[in-house]
Amino acid sequence: MKKYFAGLAAGLVMAGSAQAETIVMQSIYPSSLPLLGDTGVTLAEQVAALTSGELEIEFNEPNAIVGGNEMWDAISTGAVDAGWYSPGFAQGIIPAAPIFTAVPFGPDAREYTAWWYNGGGEELWAEITAPYNIHSELCTILVPEASGWFGNEINSPEDLQGLKMRIFGLGAQVMQRLGVEAQSMPVSDTMTGLRLGTIDAAELSFPMIDMALGMQEHAQHYYFPGWHQQTSLITFIINQDVWDGLTDQQRTSISTACAANVAITIARGEAGQMEPLAKLEESGVTIHTWNDEMMTAFRESWNAVVEEQVAADADFARAWQSLSDFRENYSQWSAIGYVD
After folding, report:
1. 3-state secondary structure of 217
2. How far is CA 11 from CA 22, 55, 82, 98, in A?
3. 3-state DSSP call for residue 286?
4. How confident is the model over 138-142, as a mean pLDDT?
5. 11-51, pLDDT tens digit by residue?
6. Side-chain half-sphere CA neighbours of 185 within 13 A
7. How far is CA 233 from CA 160, 265, 299, in A?
8. How much is the pTM?
9. Per-residue pLDDT tens for 89-113?
10. For the purposes of burial, counting CB atoms within 10 Å of the CB of 189, is it exposed (0-12), middle (13-18) or buried (19 or more)?
11. What is the DSSP letter of 79?
């Protein structure tokens, strides 16, 4: 039986005559999922190696200790030491949180990491989350997601009316404005919903994961680009008291491993989509790209959502302003520095 100690700085575990500190971490994603989940396991292995076994991260699957929607509060209070987590899941507590995970029509991996590390994003997230006693380390960055799986072709905004769809984050609010009954649900419930017909469509991830989950068994129309999640951030979050209780070397080991994983996961993600995409087509899936009318509808709806969110929450407003200002300044470099 797993043991964890609330409020202790990573509960001490005796290992012979030496002491190893153990951080109990629960993941929001199953370890079986490529990039999303298995990188959390990799982090634990890296930290153990970098600290010669003096610091261990115990990886726990989703819901092993607390429910997924309870993770933020559990880590905040110290009931659980740490989490493998996307900030957007804290949207119900912190309305600005999705800006630190995925933004519709948002930045690519280069631009997002530039803002996080050198454009004020990391510091702003730390400031917003300070009252919750949680420290965050960016630890994975993902390639663009697919826009979704649909049972029928979608050729105009009218085709979305009344559609029941599983979709995450700010993208859900965009779809709601277009007449979709947007729903948030776990992966297992999503698959069941598609099979039973209680939902008509779903977005989950990119081809590597979607094929692993068997999405092609439930829908045949696969749409791109994923305007709602051009890049997604995954973080290692840890109770601030636990973090402060670690040595400088232990904290540096975690930060270094996470920074390495950011580079590794973007490369792995980019290289890993071609084979599953080809296999999906071979299985009978039709790959679509949204037409201009649909992309315009998504963008106009997103603009309205942003306006509402900025007016409703001061932290959302300043986070959005920070990201927008950075992107405006970055656009000159992007335009002249890269070949289209």
Report:
1. helix
2. 6, 11, 12, 31
3. strand
4. 97
5. 333 333 346 799 999 999 999 999 999 999 999 999 999 99
6. 19
7. 28, 11, 21
8. 0.91
9. 999 999 999 999 999 999 999 999 9
10. middle
11. S
Segment 269-297 shows an average pLDDT of 97
Looking at the chain, the domain(s) classified CATH 3.40.190.170 span 12-94+106-141+233-271
- DSSP string for 86-128: -GGGGTTT-TTGGGGT--TT---HHHHHHHHHHSSHHHHHHHH
Kindly tell me if the per-residue pLDDT of 190 is higher than 90: no
Which of 89, 56, 57 is closest to 72 using CA atoms?
A: 89
Give the residue carrying structure tokens 């949680």: 134
**Two tokens at 238?**
């840890």
| 128, pLDDT greater than 70 | yes
Query: Tokens 């959390």 label which residue?
Result: 40
Residue ranges in the chain assigned as alpha helix (H): 38-50, 71-77, 109-118, 121-129, 170-177, 187-196, 207-213, 240-245, 248-271, 274-282, 292-312, 314-337
The strand pairing partners of 236, in sequence order, are 84, 137
Cα 222 vs. chain centroid, distance in angstroms?
21
**How many other CB atoms are found less than 10 A from the CB of residue 263?**
12
Q: Quick check: 76 and 110 in contact, CB under 8 A?
A: no
CATH topology of domain 148-229+273-332: D-Maltodextrin-Binding Protein; domain 2 (3.40.190)
Cis before 276? omega within 30? no
Phi/psi at 107 (5° precision) = -70, 160
Report how far residue 229's alpha carbon sits from residue 307's, in angstroms, rounded to the nearest whole number. 19
What's the CATH code, domain 12-94+106-141+233-271? 3.40.190.170
